[in-house]
Write a structure and sequence with these properties.
mainly beta; Neuraminidase; six-stranded mixed β-sheet; four-stranded antiparallel β-sheet; globular
Length: 307
């Protein structure tokens, strides 16, 4: 049976030099809401809830080889932090960024962060030094990194949702247009180097070849803004849909709901459903999917254990 682990990530009143500890609680949910087919509801399951009083509003995340989690907290606090693999503590590693929106990790352990309001990509090296890496178009949002450590950035644009392209940034910081796609959002690379790009409003998934050729690959059934991130693993693309409140799995262009529905229980962290899922990432072993929710009352990292 697919298992769901919920990590509630929360704040205290001050930050610098502090470590934040979690209290752990085991609960049994009335539904698991991890479905291998549309609208399927498996039987009850045991959930692990790690919670503190106040949530972090995580925009996006990436999981390192040692299972530690790097995440960005967007416009309200504009920080980047590192969370221990077991959720027992975290530390702020960068502040003062301008609307950090997404984060990626290259093969050398460097972090790259898109800054929506700053129209740039910043680099945080393995020693924690923050530098301005590249200036980009208006309103950068998601980020993906290929096996050669080239960085790809999608755009929402500013004001008029004017983002219409994906940029490629070389490891030396040279920026060029890689593909033209209307308001692109979440992205992920397959094993052959094809980039899959989810559009924000049209709920389309485009496949972009290594040479930049764009083809329509899938359409996601939608109830509104898709708006979430995407990641590729095990021959399929996983997409967090912001308004649908679902995690979608797409294989060979066929869309299947993996998890989620509108929250119906008194505590959405315990009910294994999603409310505004936004960030999504796999661990190094590709057997656990990490999902964040951007919502004031139930911000959390949920870990879906896959077969």
């Amino acid at each position: 049976m697919t298992k769901l682990l919920i990590l509630g990530i929360c704040l205290a009143s001050t930050w610098t030099g502090m470590t934040f500890m979690f209290r752990q609680q085991n609960v049994t949910g009335s539904t698991e809401a991890i479905a291998m087919a549309q609208n399927q509801k498996p039987s009850s399951s045991k959930l692990t809830l790690l919670a503190l009083p106040e949530p972090l509003f995580i925009e996006n995340l990436v999981v390192a080889k040692d299972q530690s989690i790097f995440a960005v907290e967007g416009f309200d606090r504009s920080r980047v932090f590192k969370i221990a693999a077991d959720g027992s503590s975290y530390e702020v590693i960068a502040t003062g960024l301008e609307g950090p929106n997404s984060v990626g990790l290259d093969s050398l352990g460097n972090l790259y962060v898109t800054e929506y309001s700053g129209n740039r990509v910043s680099k945080i090296d393995s020693n924690g030094v923050v530098s301005r890496f590249a200036d980009v178009e208006l309103g950068p949002q998601n980020i993906a990194i290929d096996t050669a450590d080239n960085i790809y950035v999608s755009y929402f644009g500013h004001g008029s949702d004017s983002g219409d392209r994906v940029s490629k940034i070389t490891p030396t910081g040279e920026v060029s247009t890689f593909a033209n796609i209307k308001v692109p959002n979440g992205m992920g690379f397959d094993e052959q180097g094809n980039l899959y790009v989810v559009t924000t409003y049209d709920a389309e998934v485009h496949r972009v070849s290594p040479q930049g050729s764009v083809t329509l690959w899938a359409n996601i059934p939608q109830q509104g803004l898709i708006g979430g991130s995407a990641t590729w693993a095990n021959g399929q693309l996983f997409v967090a849909t912001l308004s649908n409140n679902t995690i979608e799995s797409i294989r060979d262009g066929v869309v299947t709901t993996l998890a989620g529905a509108l929250d119906t229980g008194p505590d959405p962290r315990i009910q294994a459903t999603f409310n505004n899922p936004l960030g999504i990432a796999f661990n190094a072993a590709r057997n656990a999917l990490y999902v964040t929710q951007y919502y004031q009352d139930n911000a959390a990292i949920r870990v879906i254990q896959l077969p």
